[in-house]
Amino acid sequence: MDTERSDVEKSALRTPARPRVLVVGATGYLGGHLVRSLHGHGYDVRAIVRRDEQRDALEPFAEVVVAQATTPSTLVGVADGVDAVFSSLGITRQRDGLTYEDVDYAANLNVLREAERAGVGSFLYVSVFRGDELESVGLVAAKERFVRALRESPVRHHIVRPTGFFSDMKDFLEMARSGRAWLVGDGSARLNPIDGGDLAEACVELWEQGVPEAGVGGPRAYTHDELAMVAFQALRKKPKITHLPLWLVPVVLFLLRVFAPRHVYGPAEFFLTAMTTGDMVADRWGERSLDAFFEEEVAALGGATTGAVPATRPG
Ligand SMILES: NC(=O)c1ccc[n+]([C@@H]2O[C@H](COP(=O)([O-])OP(=O)(O)OC[C@H]3O[C@@H](n4cnc5c(N)ncnc54)[C@H](OP(=O)(O)O)[C@@H]3O)[C@@H](O)[C@H]2O)c1
After folding, report:
1. What mean pLDDT is predicted for residues 48-72?
2. What is residue 8's predicted lDDT score, i.e. its pLDDT?
3. Is the predicted pLDDT of residue 261 greater than 90, yes or no?
4. To the nearest whole number, what is the mean pLDDT of the chain?
5. CB of 93 closer than 6 angstroms to any ligand 1 atom
6. 162 CA to centre of ligand 1 in angstroms
7. Centroid of ligand 1 to alpha carbon of 2 (angstroms)
């Protein structure tokens, strides 16, 4: 009988099953990097998407399942045969009319409960650097509520706390393109943002090493002034920076809370609070530099003089 099997089949029979990892949030900036990193490390990857048309980008790297993390009945079975869950599920740019409590907390909890039911061994969750100190912010409060549920779960937890993604730093490019960077405070607070690919690699390594909780930042810390300068440099523009007094922040947030829609207030609350929380410098991971990322962004959008930089959302 064995002689009738192909070499591939025989080798598959000899090779022990590779660990399978379920990625939630796989269609997002970080989730896409997580899928590719896990696949690159030789894991079997399963990814949840919420719409059929989101399959194509992930199918080369993962078994793709359509399910709604906000609806527990659709999750039944998604974690069967899975060794670990990685979740970067959360609201950033989405405008579904849902709250951070609905998604960052409750939808992640739905996935966790399904993981518990399926006997999954570990769960890696991406929260926010210094999240435990930033719980006055709605987005962070929902994430930290899920962190507490995860710590209490019988599933082994891994909580990764990134400082800020390079993709979020495009706000500095947008300000530079408009001709002036508006910073809150004196511009001396420091931050070491990280590339999505480097962060995904850090997540895989921290999980493989069994690290329960870790802050993760990029290879270089910049002051806020330096972040703005690097953005002006990438655009070959003369730097103009205005420092706004710290007392303005609560006033602006009050006005936004009263007059702006939730999808504007939520990210603004996070961004302004994080910018006034002092240094956000975590353990350094990865190699990609923000300078190179900005140069690439500007080049991709037609170069330093014509480049229009799309506004992005904070975490
Ligand atoms: N400073 C920081 O520490 C920092 C910085 C940035 C981000 N973060 C956090 O890291 C996580 C990942 O960030 P990212 O930039 O990768 O975000 P992203 O690109 O917006 O990805 C978010 C993922 O969550 C999914 N999602 C959102 N709402 C959903 C809903 N109602 N139902 C089902 N899925 C939903 C998205 O699905 P769709 O693609 O279908 O919308 C996407 O897969 C976020 O939780 C963010 O808050 C932290």
Report:
1. 97
2. 42
3. no
4. 90
5. yes
6. 13
7. 47
Q: How many residues does the chain have?
A: 315
CA-proximal residue: ligand 1, atom 6 (nearest): 315
Cα separation, 295 vs 207, in Å, equals 32
Between residues 61 and 311, the one the model is more confident about: 61
pLDDT (tens digit per residue) in 36-58? 999 999 999 999 999 999 999 99
Query: By alpha-carbon position, which residue is closest to atom 31 of ligand 1?
Result: 103
Closest C-alpha to ligand 1, atom 41: 94
The Cβ of residue 265 has, within 10 Å, a number of other Cβ atoms equal to 17
Q: Are 202 and 216 in contact (CB under 8 A)?
A: yes
pTM above 0.85, yes or no: yes
CB 134 within 8 A of CB 107: no
Contact 26, 35 (CB under 8 A): yes
67 Cβ below 6 A of ligand 1: no
Residue 94 CB less than 6 A away from ligand 1: yes
235 phi, psi to nearest 5 deg: -90, 0
Which is the closest atom of ligand 1 to the Cα of 161? 3
Q: What distance in angstroms lies between residue 88's CA and the mean position of ligand 1's atoms?
A: 6
Q: Is 200 in the pocket of ligand 1 (CB under 6 A)?
A: no
On the CB side of 118, CA atoms within 13 Å amount to 24
Report, as an integer, the average pLDDT of 160-185: 95
Contact 98, 70 (CB under 8 A): yes
Residue found by looking up tokens 């996070």 in the block:
270
pLDDT of residue 16: 56
Predicted confidence band of residue 74 (pLDDT cuts 50, 70, 90): very high
DSSP designation for 122: E
CA distance 272 to 224: 12
